[in-house]
Write a structure and sequence with these properties.
Length: about 190
């Protein structure tokens, strides 16, 4: 993605899709079919990597699904444990995904015995899995969205989307590709 350029300007084919989906409402039936879709694109080969404890998929009737990759715990001295998870949200509407890295540090000296953190790759294990996930999705022609830029990029101003009740400052790319804002997928 290019800085300074809106996602829908960079990819005008999606601009047309979003217009038909959210403004002219020509694609309600298509949207429901997409939400019901059960086949998922999952980096199954990661299950064979020694670092990976488990891969779970959460696929409901929704415009997106989630992949949870739990890594094996790292156990340190005096009861120190770090648990790591890669969470990938994949759109069924257009070929994009977003990745979140999560850590849980457990130790008896911490408040509530644990500390949950999200952020950038901080361990070699997460860095390796993150690289493999990116390679897998790139090979399948999916684009990774950045939380800082792309996810919150404006798709439409609320005045342009008459059928949706405003719930944020603007209708963002994250809202458009990952969430059932139309309440069709119930």
């Amino acid at each position: 993605m290019h800085h300074g350029k809106k996602f829908i300007e960079e990819y005008p084919e999606y601009s047309t899709l979003f217009y038909k989906l959210y403004i002219s409402r020509e694609l309600d039936d298509w949207f429901l079919d997409i939400c019901k879709k059960e086949d998922t694109l999952v980096p199954e080969e990661l299950a064979n990597i020694e670092l990976v404890k488990e891969i779970k998929i959460q696929n409901k009737v929704s415009p997106s699904y989630e992949i949870f990759i739990d890594l094996k715990d790292i156990i340190g001295n005096e009861g120190f444990i770090i648990s790591q998870q890669v969470i990938i949200k994949v759109s069924k509407i257009i070929p994009v995904y977003i990745m979140d890295l999560s850590y849980r540090i457990s130790h008896r000296l911490l408040c509530d015995n644990k500390l949950d953190l999200n952020g950038s790759a901080e361990t070699l294990e997460i860095m390796k899995i993150e690289k493999l996930v990116r390679e897998f999705f790139a090979k399948n022609n999916f684009k990774e969205l950045s939380y800082l830029y792309d996810y919150y990029d404006t798709v439409f101003e609320w005045k342009d989307v008459p059928d949706l009740e405003p719930f944020n400052r603007r209708f963002t790319l994250g809202d458009a590709v990952f969430v059932d804002n139309l309440d069709i997928c119930k």
